Amino acid sequence: MKLILASASPRRSELLAQIGVRFNVQAVDIDETPLPQEEASSYVLRMAREKVSACVALQQDDSSFSVLGADTSVIVDGEILGKPADFTEAKTMLLKLSGRVHQVMTSVCLVTCHSGINSGEPEINTQLVVTDVTFKSLSEDQIKAYWQSGEPQDKAGSYGIQGFGAVFVERISGSYSAVVGLPLAEVAEMLSLADVMVWDRQG
């Protein structure tokens, strides 16, 4: 089964490649603004579904295919922390995370569209994985130096656990790969059910 990753994230591409999945990338542009009073879990699930829907709508190939979309958000006290627009926003976010536990919610949506005699309604599989992340207390000097590294600028919550931001993390409870961008155990099972090969040595 042909797989399309509806994401421009290099981290998600690296994670899929890590488990031997062959795929094409087709990033989509959607409005990622939370709805009024939208709960964090509902928002994250909606984002993954909308990314997949937008990608499916672009397909013109009449062969069977699957589209994988995902969204990762950092949540503290029910607040969704997106990507910072500037240093001031990044500092505010990191101070909220400092010395406490927050949640990283990663949703994954896989839609499989069949052609020919197997055509019909698309198969949809969606999962939400929540991981608790504990930060050590951060100083303003650390936050400034981290911002100057350039890493926080395209990261939800203003940090990347797979990069320099790892030094802020005292412990995690849950899926490390989900915090990076894809919960690999769950994704591998979803792909296998859709006949997308994992552990492909030619991938």
Helix run count:
6
Query: Helicity range of the residues?
Result: 25-40%
Number of strands: 7
Give, in order, the helices and strands: EHEHEEHEEHEHH
Largest sheet composition: 7 strands, mixed
Regions with little confidence, pLDDT below 50 for 5+ residues: none
Q: How many domains, as an integer?
A: 1
CATH level 1 name? Alpha Beta
Name given to the CATH architecture: Alpha-Beta Complex
What gyration radius follows from the Cα positions, in whole Å? 18 Å
Active site: 71 (proton acceptor)
InterPro entries: ITPase-like_fam (IPR029001), Maf-like (IPR003697)
EC number: 3.6.1.9
Organism: Alkalimarinus alittae
Please describe what this structure looks like.
This protein has 203 residues and is an alpha/beta fold. The chain has a single domain, classed as Maf protein. Helices cover 31% and strands 26% of the residues. Strands 1, 2, 3, 4, 5, 6 and 7 form a 7-stranded mixed beta sheet that branches. Helix 3 crosses helix 4. The longest helix has 19 residues. It is elongated and about 60 Å long. The two termini are 13 Å apart.
